[in-house]
Amino acid sequence: MRVAQRMRQNAMNEAELRANAQTILSTIHQSRPKTTTSAYGPKQEEFDQFCQRKQYSDGATVTEEKLLLFLVDEDETRLAWRSVRTYVTAIADLYRTQKALGMNTHPSPREDNVREYLESLQRREAQRDKDNYADKGRDTLLDGYSESEFGRVCHELWVHSGTSTECHFRTLEDLLFGHYLLTRGGDRRATEISDLFTFEFAGEGSTRCMPLIFTTRAGKQNQHGRLETAGAYRNRNPLICILGGLSFYLLCRWDLGSEPFPDFSRLSAYEDQIRRAGRWNQEQMVGCYLNSLPRKFMRTMAGHPPQIGCFEIRRAGVTPPEVLLSMIWPELDRWRGRFGPGTEQENDLAAMGSTNLLFYLREVVLQDSVILMKKYPGSPVWNHPVFRHPAYAPFAQQLSDFILEEERPSQLAVLIQAMPVLADYLQSVDARNEARTSQLRTELTEQLRATEERLAVAQSSLFSSGFNLQLAAATPTPATTAAVAVDAVGQVGPGDGSRSVSTQSSIIDSRATSPRAADTIIVKPEPPPQYQMCRAVKTVQALWINVFFGVMILGIVGRCRIAVVPIVASAAGALANGLCYVAWYSDYPLHGRMVASPFADAAWLVQEAGLPFYSYIILTRILLSPQLLIFKTMFWSLILSIAAIKLTILSLRVYYISEPSADLLQLINHLHIGYFSGTAIAECLSAGFLLNNFRVALRASEHTPLRGDLLKYLMRSTEIRVALLALIGISRTITFTFQVTAQSATTLSGQFDRFTYALETLFPVVMYIDILASRLIYADNARTNSTSALGEWPDRTIRHRETIAYRPSDRTIKETHPLS
């Protein structure tokens, strides 16, 4: 009983599995492309007839042996190896069907023998082509057509359009689609109006650019519904323009033929899902197509330069009148403005794209007809009423006159096309300059080496012979024309009343011929040498010494906001000096110097305008309203003014590096005077508030039992040290007034300005000492005040950053330290 039940269950399962396999197999066959079904069906029928003739006992069951015999007997003699491979694919598909239905238990026929047989056929065909001297240019770049040949084909289609007009224009459009969009014939023949649309490509040139966009989701190489797009621009030649061919083809179908104009109200029933309402908006679609379409290729195919901005169609320069446009596809006007994202519009993007394309094709028909009507006056397409309308003749004459004018590309198009050439020229100029510089460097090196050799020879002869040295002065006198005798071993002695002179470090060409022979040489005075401070030294000083000291100070005193000011100022100064060397003292390329200069000025702004923030942080801790509000208002007004002046200097210096000018240098110097004056005023403002606070603390100290040396304490206070910074700012303002060159100290005032700036660079060290001294005095006062009686202090407020803050409201004493 159990065995029978199990057998019955197995039979039911087997039947269910076969039924499911048949259902899936039927689904697969139904979803196949029609071309695949039509290609496999006849070949499978041939195999079935072959098996019937052979009268096999298992009928048309596919096996490897049957397949090989079928290929040899039936198809080897009349088919190429590619066709034989197609037969193998079709019979293998029949085998999979039989196996899914449970009719075939044999292994797959596409095993090693069949595969090797196909390879042998391929080798044999290749050898046969070689023996028969087959054309090796077939299926290569030579196996194509030129643009002139393509134009002749289009010309013949226009010439013979008198018979079967729609057929010729359909063939023309099919040819244009294949040429511009590179689509397969099956994809072109399955194209629907909803697959075509257009929108404007901005920035393409002086003419409005409305390309033809073609989308498809099915094809031989696209079996899974992947969205594929292609596009084409309007061609400069109307004969081979894809937009013109499409417009005349649709004109024949809808206006000259019997086919009605499409009803866009039913378009959404078969529209692509991705462009239905609620999926993509117009901006997303435009962005997608702009990124995916090969726009450079599209421009070249349409006869335009490959650079963006050069799109220009001469015949599109005259817009047709509205009365002529409305005569082409009159039913189209009822859909104007109906589709779109508006509240009263239908949000159907496919319909909007298709109607926009048709509205644009109206203009293309009228503009291209002016040229094509003269070339092909016998075409039946000119029987359309629009070409006999009274307004068409003036429009055609205006457009013809516009086209006959000398065609000159717009200035923008010329500039865009010249940019690559200009870039190449500048690169070649840079290469030549580098080569010339390298050559000059080599020549100078050789000259210096030769000079060193001559100097070595002169020095060796100097100590082996004696000579007389006569010093020539501006006004010759007996005292200044004395001779000095030097013996052969270098001993110096007076001769003829003259004084001895050491000549060991002099560079003299001696022409003595004997150890005691004397030569007379005239040495003329030279201008004194000029030296400038090395930027690298100040960079190392600011970066290593000052910043390193700041890190050490932070390690000693702990977290301290005010110590950040000298650290940041020192780092900015190091960066500014390094970039200044690149911008003004090096031989780097011009663009590199122009980039380094503004960053150097910005770093100087951080350094020079950042130092007053040391006083700012102190004053914000010790001042009370309304003095604090007044100080902040004045301080930030000065800082903003300083920053504005520095930004102006920054931009002018970049321009000065590219094009030096004496007037521009004078303007920069005047702005620097205002800049340093502003920094000096800011520092003086802070110093004034600090010194006023110092005076209040001094008066308060006379009535308090402070211990220790009060004068020493006050002299070491922070107010005096920071006030000295105002002195440096004033000095830089005065010295920079007399500057006559850019970034070079060639005068006494320039040298003194460099010295003042060096002091400013070292000033963070003074701040570090001030921080440590303040902490030390604060600790001493804390120890001293801790032993004092509270009743001995008067009822007054002492606001000093290193003394005691007394609050009369509750008569409590609180020790404060603003630097913490």
Summary?
The chain has 820 residues and is mostly helical. It has helices at 2-30, 34-54, 64-75, 81-100, 112-131, 147-159, 165-181, 185-189, 242-254, 282-292, 295-301, 322-325, 349-375, 392-404, 411-462, 535-557, 564-585, 590-610, 613-622, 627-658, 662-701, 710-715, 718-736, 748-785, and strands at 196-197, 212-216, 228-232, 468-471, 484-486, 492-494, 520-523, 804-807, 812-815.
Task: Lay out the secondary structure.
Layout lengths: L1 H29 L3 H21 L9 H12 L5 H20 L11 H20 L15 H13 L5 H17 L3 H5 L6 E2 L14 E5 L11 E5 L9 H13 L27 H11 L2 H7 L20 H4 L23 H27 L16 H13 L6 H52 L5 E4 L12 E3 L5 E3 L25 E4 L11 H23 L6 H22 L4 H21 L2 H10 L4 H32 L3 H40 L8 H6 L2 H19 L11 H38 L18 E4 L4 E4 L5
Parallel strand pairs: 4-7
Antiparallel strand pairs: 1-2, 2-3, 5-6, 8-9
Helix pairs in contact: 2-4, 4-5, 7-9, 9-13, 16-17, 16-24, 17-18, 17-24, 18-20, 20-21, 21-23, 23-24
Structure characterization notes:
Residues 98-267, 270-392 form the Ndc10 domain. InterPro entries: Integrase_recombinase_N, Ndc10_dom2_sf, NDC10_II. This is Short-chain dehydrogenase. The protein is mostly helical and 820 residues long. It folds into 5 domains: 32-131, no CATH class; 147-405, hpI Integrase, Chain A; 414-460; 463-526, no CATH class; 614-814, no CATH class. The chain is built from 24 helices and 9 strands. A 3-stranded antiparallel sheet has the order 1-2-3. α17 (564-585) packs antiparallel against α18 (590-610). It is elongated and about 125 Å long.
